[in-house]
Amino acid sequence: MAATSQFASRYKKDLSTEALRTKVARRKSILQKENRHKLFEKGRQFGLADVNVQLSKERGISELKETRELCSQENSNVKQSKMNERKEMLQRYKEEKELRKLLEQREKAKKGVFKVGLYRPAAPGFLAPEEPAAAKPREKVIRVIFSI
């Protein structure tokens, strides 16, 4: 009976709210630590090392060199392709700009020169006199001022 009473007291002990809260808090903190460590290792780009598998330092270094070489080759290929693509885009842009410039010049040449001045249209036929009358020269008016 001592064994049953021991388990019963442990069961009752686990049911207490304070014990449950401490367990949950402890579990939560452990999970937070693990997640923080995973993110840290991910940032370092190594990942978590498995405890059961022990890699020799030489093997690890050679693998790192190979991966570096592969990554550098891929990066150089990607950089070259992006650089070539940008050069082609720049060349196309310059050609399009030149074409636009030529088209605008042609359109301007077709329109002609823009003239500025007063618009004096010819009088319509029904308003125009049949025979233009000769303008009489104005007589000079002489004003004489008399002072008294």
From TrEMBL:
Provide GO CC annotations from the record.
Answer: cytoplasm; nucleus; spindle pole centrosome
UniProt GO molecular function: microtubule binding
Say yes or no: keyword Coiled coil present.
yes
Query: What InterPro entries does its record include?
Result: SAPAP
UniProt feature coiled coil, ranges = 79-106
Q: What domain of life does the UniProt record list for this protein's source?
A: Eukaryota
Keyword Repressor recorded: no
Q: Which GO terms describe its biological process?
A: centrosome localization; chromosome segregation; kinetochore assembly; mitotic spindle organization; regulation of mitotic cell cycle; signaling
Q: Which UniProt keywords apply?
A: Coiled coil
Q: Which family does it belong to?
A: Belongs to the SAPAP family.
Protein name per its UniProtKB record: Uncharacterized protein
